[in-house]
Each structure stands twice: as C-alpha cells, then as structure tokens.
C-alpha cells in the first residue's frame, strides 16, 4: 500500500497508546498491511527508522488518501498481497531540519503538513514470509528509489529521481501543475497561488506565517558545507531570502505568468537594481517622456556616472524607437504602461518585437495596470516591474517592489540585490500577501469607478481635459483596449483654473486624502505641480507637461455615488 499523509491523519487512525512517547518529529506506525518507509531516507541520511515492540490490541487498517504527493508506477505485488502474522510498529524519526532539507520544489508538493509529511515507498513487515525483509534492510534495497539533491542557488534545489525507470515506486513531480488546472481566474490565483498547492513553511494554518528572523542556523558544520557546495537546500541569511517573502513572490509569478519573481523593499529599489544589473557600463537605455519623476532622475543623473546613456522618446513614437535601435547599441527599453501621470500606453507587443530584433531587452513597469488588467510578459516583454506599495499591497500600509520574468534575468538582478541589500521585511511581505487576496475585488471596483467618473469629468464645464485610457479621446485608447482588460483606478485631469484655483478644488474634496501614492482602498488626490514638481519653476514643470491645474485622482473602493457627489461639489466650489 502506498501512503502519503500527514501526522494529524495518521493520529486519527491510532489509539493514544500507539502514539505514546512519540515526540514532535516522530511518527509511530502500526498496521496489518504492508507499510512504507520514506524514500526521503536516501536523500537525508539523518532520517532514522527503528522498530518498536509489538503493540497489543487490534489496529485498524490504514487506507488513507494521497495528501499532497502523487505516486505513479507499480507497487511490488508481493507487498500488496501480503498477509501479516504479527504486528510491529515503525517510528520514523525526522531530524529537526528535515523540512529545510527538502528542495523548494519538493516542499511545494507537501501541503497541509502537521508535525511532518510522510512520503512513503512500499515495503513489507511480514516476518513470516522469507520474501520480505525487515524495515531497516528495506530502506537500503533497490525498492526504495534514491534521490539526489542539487541546488541551483542558495534558496532552492531540485529533487530528481536518479533511477526512475528501474524503480517500483516513483514520485511524480507536481511542480509543473498549473494553477489554471483548477483555478479559472486571476482573482482565484491571487488568493491561492503560492499557498494552496503547498509552501515551504510547515504549518496547517490557512494564512502564511511571518518568519521573523535575520539568519538561519545549521545543526553541524557538515550541513553548512553541503549547503555551500550545492548539495543541500536551505536559507542562510535574511538578506538572501525568507520563507514568507517566497510565498509572495510565487503569488506574483503566478499572476504574471513568470518563471520567477524577486521581491524588494520598494518599487524604486526594484527599478534601480534592475537597471544596474542588466545595463553594462557604456550601455544605452531607451525610455519615455512621461514617467515617474524619480525614475527619470535616476536615469538622467545617476546612470551617466557609470557611462550609461539614455534616449527619451514619446510613448507612441515607434519611428523614434526604430531610429535609436538602428543608430545605437540599445541594451534595454524601460518604461511604464500606462505611464505616470498621463496614463500613456506603449504598444508592448510591437516594441518587444522591434527591440528583440536588435538584441535589446524590454522591461515594463506595470504598476498602474496591475497584473489583472495587463499581462506584459504575455505581450512580449522580458520583465515586468511593480511597485507593490500600490495595488498589490492595496491598503496604503506597506512598501515593496518586485521584478518578474525568466529565471535567467531575475537571477542576474538577484545577484546584485544580495550585494546592495534592499531586502523586504517579512512583515511587509505578509502584508502584500494579505493585500493580494482582495486584489481582484479592489481592482474591479476601482476600474469601474474610474471609468464612470472619467466620463463625468470629461463632460463637466469646469474640466478642461481628462487623461484616462478608457476614454475614446485618449491618444492610445484603441491600443489600451487591445492590450488591457481594464484601465485602472487613476484618472488625471486639468480643471479650469490656475494653481490656486486647483488647490481650492483639492481642498474642497472631503473623501480623498491629499497624499502621494495610489492604488489603495482609500482614495487619494494630489496636485503634481505641488506634490512632485514644486522644486521646479513653472516653465520647467511645463517641459514635462505638468501644468499647475493638473490633478491626479486615485480612486479607492469607496462607494461610487459618494465619490461622484464629493467631486461634483468640489468642482462647484471653484
């Protein structure tokens, strides 16, 4: 019989006397049928098996469902049909760091673990039959498939069957199971990805625990050497990774359709480390006129000190992009889509095609879009960046940033990240996980409210211009319809007035907070000329299109009618 179960399930099948003396980390087995020895014993030499004296009294037959690991292949026919003429028990003793020794992929298959998860291969404890061997010997026989542990980096490893074809029992790798096989929408993925199919933290809790630690210990020096020589998977230092952070990363990867995600302390941390890691000295970047000001400052003032230059083009100017790709050796095209604050959209599919033909990478900052409204990687981009502070966190209570894409590129960024620091706090990672569970509900409400308010504002006599990709008047309206499923919760517009008149409108609003940021449950409003560009003269602000009467309104999840009434009364007060 093949068994894959957890401690709580096993306990329900045994009397308290059967389990007496089994400390945390031990599981007592006693059954009339053929039992199992973990195939993990080969991978983990410190895994111990020992027999105890027979228990008295009848023990019910164990017939438990698969609990997290799928088995394929044939079970030894002798063990399947064996009758037992005596009873014995087996205690499987797990070393304290048993779960840490499992690779990331292996642990992902072991969900809902209590004290320990048992991955069992078949053996028989029929002492009356000469065809059966004792438990200790069975561990060393060919019936138990050995596993080799190899690690690709400090955070993970891959468990492989070294002799799959010759074994009676095989473990089928579940890491390729896609969430789409049982979750049909991004909303469900945002809730369950990284958690429902198993996670590297041993717990039966529904919510992911916060692992507050700055470092991870090794029981003995040989374990540390195994880790350093890539024979053992473990964490080492808090700056290099954290179990809570990994859950958030896997959740974002599932939403973006990415191989890997790297979570950092802020959105700007993610953007700057990415640029430093992927653009060599002497490299050239192409970016767009409309973008987050701090990103522009980094590109225009910091990167040139390293010999990195940039060309700035209009988001829709494909001709200018083709020209610079032809004239210069471009390393990276980096922009937002939609952009901040005018919500311009870049043709991600076309830009990716043109850049890839010339060997340039494409990175899209999708913060304004969210992974629900736009799939930049599916459209052809190599990397996608988010300020997780905004929609992903969604509650105006956490800072974070992330990069998603193929393993090779994300690993290159991760290597520099480990040197520079900027690691996200596990408590912040937890808040992002918590926030993402309501992402689809919030974004749906914000999409709807922003669209309806944008239409009202465009028709209002005291509003000169509205910038929102969901309006037919937007320059990239048709493009946005093609590559987005929703247009986001931010609307920028210019009121009919000067700096002071606009400030009067902002002050008259009762619901939104006057603050930077966007994407949270609470509505936020700001006047970019004051909030982000106050250090520049009016003429200098105008070079970036920032007029004194520009307003950026981030809609929260308040009731649409309340927000509508508040905006209309504020406009009337002007």
Mind summarizing the main beta sheet? 7 strands, mixed
Q: End-to-end span in angstroms? A: 78 Å
Output the number of helix runs: 23
**What's the rounded overall pLDDT mean?**
78
Cofactor: pyridoxal 5'-phosphate
Enzyme class: transferase
GO cellular component, one term: chloroplast
Family: Belongs to the trans-sulfuration enzymes family.
How do the strands and helices of this protein lay out in sequence?
Blueprint: E1 4-6, H1 7-11, H2 16-19, E2 26-30, E3 36-38, H3 40-43, E4 48-52, E5 71-72, H4 77-81, E6 89-93, H5 98-101, H6 104-108, E7 117-122, H7 135-140, E8 147-151, E9 157-161, E10 170-171, H8 186-192, H9 221-228, H10 243-256, E11 260-264, H11 267-278, E12 284-288, H12 293-302, E13 309-313, H13 318-327, E14 330-336, H14 348-357, E15 361-365, H15 370-373, E16 383-387, E17 401-405, H16 407-420, H17 426-436, H18 439-459, E18 463-467, H19 477-483, E19 490-495, H20 499-508, E20 513-514, E21 524-526, H21 528-531, H22 538-543, E22 550-554, H23 560-572
Parallel strand pairs: 12-13, 12-14, 14-15, 15-16, 20-21
Antiparallel strand pairs: 1-7, 2-6, 3-7, 4-6, 5-10, 8-9, 11-17, 16-17, 18-19, 19-22, 21-22
Helix pairs in contact: 8-10, 10-17, 11-16
Family: Belongs to the trans-sulfuration enzymes family.
Pathway: Amino-acid biosynthesis; L-methionine biosynthesis via de novo pathway; L-cystathionine from O-succinyl-L-homoserine: step 1/1
Keywords: Pyridoxal phosphate
């Amino acid at each position: 019989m093949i068994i894959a179960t957890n401690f709580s399930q096993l306990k329900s099948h045994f009397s308290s006397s059967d389990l007496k003396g089994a400390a945390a980390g031990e599981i007592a087995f006693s059954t009339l049928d053929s039992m199992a020895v973990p195939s993990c014993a080969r991978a983990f030499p410190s895994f111990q098996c020992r027999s105890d004296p027979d228990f008295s009294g009848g023990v019910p037959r164990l017939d438990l469902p698969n609990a997290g690991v799928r088995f394929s292949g044939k079970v030894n026919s002798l063990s399947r049909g064996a009758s037992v003429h005596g009873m014995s028990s087996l205690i499987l003793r797990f070393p304290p760091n048993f779960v840490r020794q499992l690779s990331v992929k292996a642990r992902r298959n072991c969900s809902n673990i209590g004290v320990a998860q048992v991955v069992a291969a078949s053996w028989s404890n029929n002492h009356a039959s000469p065809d059966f061997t004792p438990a200790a010997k069975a561990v060393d026989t060919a019936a138990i498939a050995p596993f080799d542990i190899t690690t690709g980096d400090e955070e993970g490893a891959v468990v492989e069957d070294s002799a799959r074809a010759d074994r009676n029992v095989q473990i089928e790798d579940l890491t390729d199971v896609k969430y789409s096989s049982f979750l049909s929408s991004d909303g469900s993925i945002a809730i369950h990805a990284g958690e429902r199919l198993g996670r590297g933290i041993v717990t039966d809790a529904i919510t992911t625990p916060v692992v507050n630690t700055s470092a991870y210990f090794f029981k003995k020096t040989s374990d540390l050497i195994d880790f350093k020589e890539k024979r053992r998977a473990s964490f080492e230092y808090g700056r290099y990774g954290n179990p809570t952070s990994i859950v958030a990363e896997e959740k974002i990867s599932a939403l973006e359709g990415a191989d890997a995600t790297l979570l950092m302390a802020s959105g700007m941390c993610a953007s700057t480390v990415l640029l430093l890691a992927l653009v060599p000295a002497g490299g050239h970047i192409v970016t767009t006129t409309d973008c987050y000001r701090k990103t522009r400052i980094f590109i225009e003032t910091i990167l040139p000190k390293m010999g990195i230059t940039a060309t700035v083009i209009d988001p829709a100017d494909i001709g200018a992009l083709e020209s610079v790709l032809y004239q210069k050796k471009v390393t990276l095209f980096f922009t937002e889509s939609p952009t901040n604050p005018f919500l311009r959209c870049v043709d991600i599919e076309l830009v990716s095609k043109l850049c890839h033909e010339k060997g340039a990478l494409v990175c899209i900052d999708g913060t304004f879009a969210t992974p629900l409204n736009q799939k930049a990687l599916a459209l052809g981009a190599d990397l996608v960046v988010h300020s997780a502070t905004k929609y992903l966190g969604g509650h105006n209570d956490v800072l974070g940033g992330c990069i998603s894409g193929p393993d090779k590129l994300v690993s290159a960024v991760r290597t520099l990240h480990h040197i520079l620091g900027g690691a996200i706090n596990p408590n912040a990672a937890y808040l992002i996980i918590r926030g993402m569970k309501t992402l689809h509900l919030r974004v749906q409400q914000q999409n709807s409210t922003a669209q309806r308010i944008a239409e009202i504002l465009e028709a209002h006599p005291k509003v000169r211009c509205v910038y929102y990709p969901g309006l037919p008047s937007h320059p990239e309206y048709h493009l946005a319809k093609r590559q987005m499923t929703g247009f986001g919760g931010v609307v920028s517009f210019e009121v009919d007035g000067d700096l002071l008149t606009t400030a009067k409108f902002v002050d008259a609003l009762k619901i939104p907070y006057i603050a930077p940021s966007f994407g949270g449950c609470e509505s936020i409003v700001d006047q970019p000329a004051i909030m982000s560009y106050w250090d520049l003269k009016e003429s200098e602000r105008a070079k970036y299109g920032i007029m004194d009467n520009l307003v950026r309104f981030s809609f929260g999840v308040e009731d649409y009618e309340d927000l509508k009434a508040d905006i209309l009364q504020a406009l009337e007060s002007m």
